[in-house]
Specification:
alpha/beta; Spore Coat Polysaccharide Biosynthesis Protein SpsA, Chain A; nine-stranded mixed sheet; 13 strands; globular; binds uridine 5'-triphosphate
Amino acid sequence: MKITKAVIPAAGLGTRMLPVARAVPKEVLPIVDRPAISYLVEEAVAGGIRDVLIITGRNKTAMEDYFDYSPEYEEKLLAAGREEEVERIHRIAESANVFFLRQHEARGLGHAILKAKPFTGDEPFAVLYGDDIIVSETPVCRQLTDAYEEYGLPVAGIKEVPEELVVKYCTMGMTPLSGNRYRIYDMIEKPKPEQIMTNYSILGRVLLTPEIYEILSVTPLGACGELQLTDAMQTLCRKSGMTGVDFEGTRYDMGSKLGFLKANVEQGVRHPEIGEEFASYLKEFVKTLQ
Ligand code: UTP
């Protein structure tokens, strides 16, 4: 079955990004001149997806505005002969069917995903975590849908991470399939050191089947008193397995201050307009750090 739907959970409070998160949702923090959420929708579209549901919350309307026309800007830009920029605004607004739904209360990633049930119906769907930006040759969404088409099981985008991060993220129990693909038979959210199976964690992308809703509805609250998606995926793994894809791409955690800065520095030097100038500035600045 072709995957045409994606869900972007973006209703979290973003406490690691306080104090700015009180005023600006982390999902619209910029990477140079585009908000994080824009990268996610573009990745989904490049991966063949047309319908995107963004799970949102209070004080996050900036996301909706970004995917709308902007008559005030357009008038000014047209008067200044900047037609391409108006076209760009329209392209962003029309690139996908973007839907929004409120989570009402940030009760965990699993709880956010449960909200997507009326949108996804009985179709499999991609999930792009709202604060995980991944820049890659082949959109990670596509890397996951290819694995789904081949193995017919739900898929997790995984990467090896340092041990100090495994205990904060999750650990995978898995065996190799072929190339960068694995069969995941178990996973544990925020494992204790003695529970670590491998240093592979899920980083920001999964592809789920509707079965997840049933499991989520009977999954008890987990770490931090929240309904954890990983706990539900653990049930799925133990029951029928998932495919793990050690994806190609550079991931930025926009939910952390360091990740936000890395994204801006690395994508800043690649930016077509200011990249060269920024790189020259950086080289000089780095000398002052010695
Ligand atoms: P995180 O756990 O990184 O988000 O969830 P958080 O809770 O906002 O982060 P901190 O720990 O307080 O800094 C990953 C993604 O899931 C969304 C977040 O918006 C983020 O994009 N999320 C999380 C929801 O949509 N709802 C939730 O209840 C929790």
